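Example record

One chain of 169 residues, shown exactly as stored in the release files.
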Amino acid sequence: MRDLLRSLLGYHAWANRDLFEKLQHLDPDRNASERHAAIRLINHYYVVARIFSGHLTGTAHGFLSDNTEVTPQLGDLAKDVAALDGWYLDYIEATSPASLGEFVAFTFTDGDRGYMSRAEMISHMVLHAGIHRGEVARILSQLAITPPWDTFAVFLHGTQPQRRLQGAQ
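Predicted structure tokens for this chain:
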């Protein structure tokens, strides 16, 4: 389980870096509304990841909703996302396999109750972010900016080119 989560979190961090690089092509003036929409989408999945980090550690996350009222600057958000991506990777290394399977009770920001294993929470965070990275990629495509090639298989084969050998040595 830890190996799969490590790969998923590595992919997540890689995809986030790639997306922020692509967003540098959005003109802050000419593409102001699209840029704002992209930042809001990323900030949303960042906040959700922060909320789940609180659930994972049993600490108060301090969020009342799944986004912030104030839209952060792109550069600040990129730094915050990268730091949180690192936190999740460190968390996996510090958490025992048995703890990853433990179920945790928590409350969503809308007041609904939840109950998920730590591994399920981490998987949810990665999958949830992927949905919103896809929405941002659509914005980029509509502006004739080639979106990142955001797939797990591309990440695995790009970071581990020996996989192209299909097990042959």
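Notes: The mean pLDDT is 94.
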